[in-house]
Amino acid sequence: MSAVQQIDAIIVGAGFSGMYQLLSLRDKLGMSAKVLEAGSGVGGTWFWNRYPGARCDSESHSYMYYFSKEMVNEWEWTERYPQQPEILRYLNYVADKFKLRPDIELNTRMQTAKFDEATNRWLITTDKGQQYSAKYFITAVGCLSSANLPKIEGISDFKGKWYHTGEWPHEGVDFKGKRVAVIGTGSTGIQAIPVIASQAAHVTVFQRTANYSLPARHHKLSGEFKKYAKEHADDIYEIMTTNTNGHPFHMQDRSIFDVSDEEREKIFEELWAQGGFQFRAAFKDILTSQEANDKAAEFIRKKIREVVKNPEVADLLSDIDHPFAAKRPPVDDHYFETYNRENVHLVNLRKTPIERITAKGVKTSDQEYEVDIIVFATGFDALTGSLVKMDIEGRQHRKLKDYWSAGPRTYLGLQVPGFPNMFTITGPGSPSVLCNMPPAIEQHVNWITNCIKHMEEKGLKVIETTEASGDYWQEQVNAVANETLLPTVKHSWYLGANVPGKPQVFMPYAGGLARYTKVCNDVTAKGYEGFQFAS
Q1: Mind listing the domains of the chain with CATH numbers?
Q2: In the predicted model, what is the mean pLDDT of residues 424-448?
Q3: Which of 209, 215, 178, 517 is nearest to 373 (CA)?
Q4: Nearest to 453 by CA among 518, 404, 524
Q5: Which residues on adjacent β-strands are paired with residue 163?
Q6: Which InterPro entries does the entry mention (predicted)?
């Protein structure tokens, strides 16, 4: 073991969150900080997620930092919805521009983080044998970064190659001439399937849960739009940070029932042709009224049946068992059109479930599908997975994975009771995955940075939230979720239902980014209500 290095803050994860937190502590507050990153490069989610078709579902001019006007003006996006390589180039550009790399330890996985009550400091060890003593411990591990591999019998028997979309080989996969099975039709499957089908000899898609998806209407950005986005950056940021979902457009303040049937169809048609999440923002009650939601859902099902030529396949793809947008709807690039290809076959796992993986492929209850490659597009252990996999121990030897065994408990998604001086960026209990991530990340990092600045100026050694604050905030998370249709989906990863054995607790804050920001600002204005300090 190496000597213990004394440092102000340790940050885990070098994605959007970790890099901005490093910059904020180091350059704004003049503190010593270091980022521990398991990958061989920066980028977080976008370093790991390299599966075919990996693309952001937020428009590029909104999927970026806005804290630096110079950076907004310098960077040029090329596409409406940026693909993984372009986002990774952007994050590398940020790391270089602000000279962040000297303070980022790559290829370094945090092994343990333990709070020492005698010194009020976090003792952190890495897989390289490094030891750190830090006043502040900040997790920036992302909401969708812990791959969820299903426990299907026989994976080790398979003689071909298998991959998970969340742990894709950096050298890529050659599908040419191959028979491919894709298991899962959530966001990653919906992005990957069209690309794989364009390359492979044959693709068998195994669908358990049919999903809504909105067309991206993807295109290259015009010079005119790029100029507009730069000139109106302040206006765009104002819209993103004062609305519900952090996107660069407002939710329309009208009910589905404020307009005639003909007018509603016209609005839906126009937004369907436009593409993207603005369809979801057409009416304010789509996610609060089942009757309103039914109108939007039926429109999308009608579109699926129009696109997919085989009526039986169209029926399977449109047989969706949950309200529209009650699970995050993907934005796709010709997903439904892919089922018109002769080399694509859809299997309904509700009718014929997978029994096991065999040496030759995938065996369902009625037949064996022989394939050369299996792709698991089965998503992530979202929001809590990356945190509970780490060995984090707070006050009185409280382990995070044990404390959260019945579901996550936080205050504002920023701190966990019993874990002093530890902050979680976009943790469970914050808007996180229910909105465009960069503005949510900036809000969280700014709040944490201002809180630490307050502590340093006042000579405070410890900040921690209380059990009562954690209980109160979980009640708030549940209350705002229950204002919507979100908790009605019992198989949603918002509740952890995609991971066997995971507690079923609604995890993100559904009240929206603007409402959440006001709560955080009010807490600060009241002297950090819900937190306790010690000097």
Answers
A1: 4-42+100-146+382-534 (3.50.50.60), 155-376 (no CATH)
A2: 93
A3: 178
A4: 524
A5: 375
A6: FAD-binding_Monooxygenases, FAD/NAD-bd_sf
